[in-house]
Design goal:
Elements (H helix, E strand, L loop, with lengths): L2 H12 L4 E3 L5 E3 L2 H10 L7 H13 L9 E5 L5 E8 L5 E7 L5 E7 L5 E6 L5 E9 L6 E8 L7 E9 L16 E6 L15 H14 L3 E4 L3 E2 L15 E5 L15 H8 L1 H12 L5 H23 L7 H30 L22 H9 L1 H27 L5 E6 L8 H5 L8 E5 L9 E5 L4 H6 L3 H11 L4 E4 L7 E6 L8 E4 L2 H15 L2 E4 L9 H7 L4 E4 L20 E4 L8 H6 L1 H8 L6 H24 L19 H11 L5 E5 H4 L33 H13 L2
Parallel strand pairs: 3-10, 11-12, 11-24, 12-15, 15-18, 18-21, 22-23, 23-24
Antiparallel strand pairs: 1-2, 4-8, 5-6, 5-9, 7-8, 9-10, 13-14, 16-17, 16-19, 19-20
Helix pairs in contact: 1-2, 1-3, 4-10, 8-10, 13-14, 19-21
């Protein structure tokens, strides 16, 4: 076997694909140098033939070096099931097994190890011979997270245990899904884009509450939201909800100040009534784009004042009351993850004010770059008040989102909040800092070359280390699912293909030189189903682009809804996919945050903007994009006309297309007539806004994640266009 073949064998054993199919059907081999670097990021050196051989041997020995695997994920109907046990040959006599269920029920017994059926043996590099036997479990276990353990002589430290996850075959789906004709609709919105006279320059949970009330009044069942994850308090201009600091906590700029009990204190009321402060707020509200630094400057002093009131009332000597106990309960329940995230925020604000340092952990002195250092522990003690302050803000945001969720339930909305879970986090943020070992080093997530990005994409997001994730019994993944599902009736998994594989790009290399890393799909999908059931949260899988064979069918079998876009759905002839052909178990939308609005798409505004910014690799690529747009625009106009939908004023001329309001009515009527369970109406489309929320491939060149709706929240329910859209939905959906 050649050295390159041995390198590829190591890559495959580690879970790396050595090549992949491009969208056009071309096979692409991953460069050997990239395989070597990605293997290094997994902890398997591969720079020389000797390193390749040693890494392959170590990888091959890995499952033989633990008495029990760290975790076993099974479906509830897999009875009986076997637990593999690895022991030194002749090294064990009598063992005691114990199975403890999640909520405390326990059972066990003592048995001779030699009674277990032998299924294999191996001599390790150390010379030790180990054997694998099977422990069979015949009991049906409840859904949940259980612990199986062995104790006895011959075991390392006298004990071994594994996490036993028992999951349902399918995700949660509402009772309404039992009616095959039940279909609902709702509004999709970027929360920051909402605004009103009481906002502080950015949409907040108060605006969301008012939107929910308006939607319920109009007959809507859902509110679709951008990810609400915590961003960077000290870098407010780092505003992408898909590159958060933490996916476990919320963006505190969304706190509705008037909804906080501490805002009733006379000192806080005086701040809010100050004419200069009112003028600053009104100026922020008038801006068509969210001024994140300005919003932070306006809100932060009020947050500080409310925290001071909270400490006076509910903390310290003589303080008591239900509110103080709730805060203590939140802090206790949040545990180490919450403590370290709040500590990160305190460190960030501290070092942001010291010359030569900065707000992200790589800009801090080396001793502070890991959460377990003595210096960090000392800082946490000395600055405990600042840690408490940031914990308080996370609590306020959590408290208000809880209230919003309860409101959707009281109003009888069939879905309620339809949340979005980002694919990953920014490596400069809190989640990465507190859990650096959970991530693969030296690589980031991206996408292979396609027609949209001929050179591939590097998103700069660090991926979970798949082997480490399993060693951790998938706890980081479970935590993120719970945080995202806790207050949602439905959740969209951004880039759902991450459950089975991710495109890794080695740092310093080109995106086109990356390759796919495999993830434990069966385990992750089962855990999604379990958390979905526990949180009574419907799951929607955003799976666009080239998918592995059978992937979508697996999602469908697990009760994960399809995600279908009007602008992407075409039949074999290239015509718009007829609505009747959309899957019933699907969420249907016109476009996504990364695509233009319907108005912008029709007139090619996004193409013009990308051309202006030089985002097309060649003039030919731009011409091909314009040609494809013109072709599908004409096909869409024909399809709408044949379906009897309004098309007055629409012109599909390739050189001079003309937009008309009929496009919005026809496009959403087309989607509304589909059997798709959920239809989300983008508010930017209703108000015929031409500009995209986000333009991939840009950072500062385009005002991403900043555009506000042109209508204030408190006028939405009475706006003629909104009411007309609601009438269209009622006509086609129930």
């Amino acid at each position: 076997m050649s050295s390159s073949d041995k390198l590829k064998a190591l890559a495959k054993a580690a879970g790396l694909d050595t090549g992949y199919w491009l969208v056009d059907g071309t096979w692409c081999d991953v460069p050997l140098r990239s395989l070597e670097r990605m293997l290094g990021s997994l902890g398997y050196p591969a720079g020389t033939p000797e390193e390749v051989a040693a890494s392959l041997y170590r990888l091959d020995e890995r499952p033989w070096q633990r008495t029990l695997p760290p975790v076993l994920v099974l479906y509830s109907d897999q009875i009986p099931f076997a637990i593999p046990v690895v022991m030194s040959r002749g090294g064990a006599g009598t063992l005691t097994w114990n199975l403890t269920e999640e909520y405390g029920a326990s059972r066990g017994a003592t048995f001779p190890y030699s009674d277990l059926p032998l299924v294999g043996s191996r001599q390790l590099k150390s010379g030790q011979t180990v054997e694998r036997r099977l422990f069979w479990v015949h009991d049906r276990l409840p859904l949940g997270y259980h612990t199986f353990s062995l104790t006895g002589e011959g075991l390392p430290d006298g004990r071994a245990e594994l996490s036993l996850v028992i999951a349902p075959r399918r995700c949660y789906q509402p009772d309404a899904f039992h009616d095959p004709m039940w279909r609902c609709w709702g509004f999709a919105v970027q929360l920051y884009a909402l605004h009103g006279s009481r906002s502080g320059g950015i949409g907040d949970f108060g605006d969301l509450r008012r939107l929910i009330e308006a939607t319920a009044e109009l007959g809507g069942n859902a509110i679709g939201l951008n990810p609400l994850h915590a961003l960077f308090k000290e870098i407010p201009e780092s505003n992408s909800p898909y590159g958060p600091s933490s996916r476990l906590y919320l963006n505190t700029l969304y706190i509705d100040i008037e909804g906080v009990p501490e805002a009733d204190d006379p000192r806080v009321r005086a701040m809010l009534a100050d004419p200069e402060r009112i003028g600053e707020r009104d100026a922020l509200n008038r801006e068509p784009l969210v001024d994140y630094p300005g919003v932070a400057r306006w809100k932060t002093p009020i947050f500080e004042a409310m925290f001071a009131v909270f400490r006076e009332r509910h903390q310290g000597e003589g303080a008591n009351g239900e509110r103080g106990r709730k805060f203590s309960g939140y802090r206790q329940q949040g545990g180490e993850s919450l403590r370290l995230t709040a500590l990160y925020e305190a460190l960030a604000e501290h070092f942001a004010r010291i010359p030569g340092h900065g707000p992200t952990w790589r800009q801090w002195p080396e001793a502070y770059q890991r959460p377990d250092s003595l210096e960090v522990q000392r800082f946490a003690q000395e600055k405990s008040d600042r840690v408490d302050y940031h914990t308080y803000l996370f609590w306020l945001a959590e408290e208000q989102l809880t209230e919003v969720d309860h409101l959707t339930r009281r109003l009888g909305m069939g879905i309620g909040l339809y949340a979005d879970m980002a694919l990953g986090v920014n490596s400069d943020g809190a989640d990465y800092w507190r859990s650096q070992g959970d991530y693969a080093q030296g690589v980031s997530i991206g996408a292979p070359p396609d027609a949209f990005s001929p050179n591939g994409q590097d998103w700069g997001i660090p991926p979970y280390h798949p082997h480490r994730l399993k060693d951790l019994c998938y706890r980081p993944f479970i935590e993120v699912l719970r945080a995202s599902m806790r207050h949602a009736g439905a959740i969209r998994l951004d880039h759902a293909m991450s459950l089975t594989r991710l495109f890794w790009v080695p740092h310093g290399g080109k995106a086109s030189e990356g390759g796919y890393m495999r993830y434990p799909f069966d385990d992750l999908l089962a855990i999604v189903a379990l958390e979905s059931r526990r949180n009574r949260c419907l799951v929607i899988g955003e799976a666009l682009g080239t998918l592995p064979e059978g992937f979508q069918e697996r999602l469908d079998g697990a009760g994960v809804l399809y995600y279908r876009l009007l602008l992407f759905e075409r039949d074999h002839r290239g015509d718009p996919q007829p609505p009747a052909n959309y899957p019933a178990d699907s969420a249907v939308v016109a476009a996504t945050h990364d695509l233009p609005t319907l108005r912008g798409w029709w007139v090619g505004r996004d193409i013009d903007e990308r051309a202006r910014l030089g985002l097309f690799p060649t003039p030919e690529a731009e011409a091909a994009e314009r040609e494809d747009r013109a072709d599908f625009r004409e096909r869409l106009l024909v399809a709408f006309t044949e379906a009897g939908l309004p098309t007055e004023g629409l012109v599909a001329d390739p050189e001079a297309p003309v937009f008309a309001s009929a496009l919005i009515e026809a496009g959403y009527a087309w989607l509304a007539s589909s059997p798709g369970r959920i239809l989300m109406v983008q508010l930017e489309d209703i108000f015929e806004q031409p500009d995209a929320v986000n333009m991939p491939g840009t950072v500062h060149e385009h005002p991403n994640w900043r555009r506000k709706l042109i209508q204030p929240t408190d006028r939405l329910a009475s706006h003629p266009r909104v009411r007309e859209m609601a009438a269209t939905m009622k006509q086609h959906r129930r």
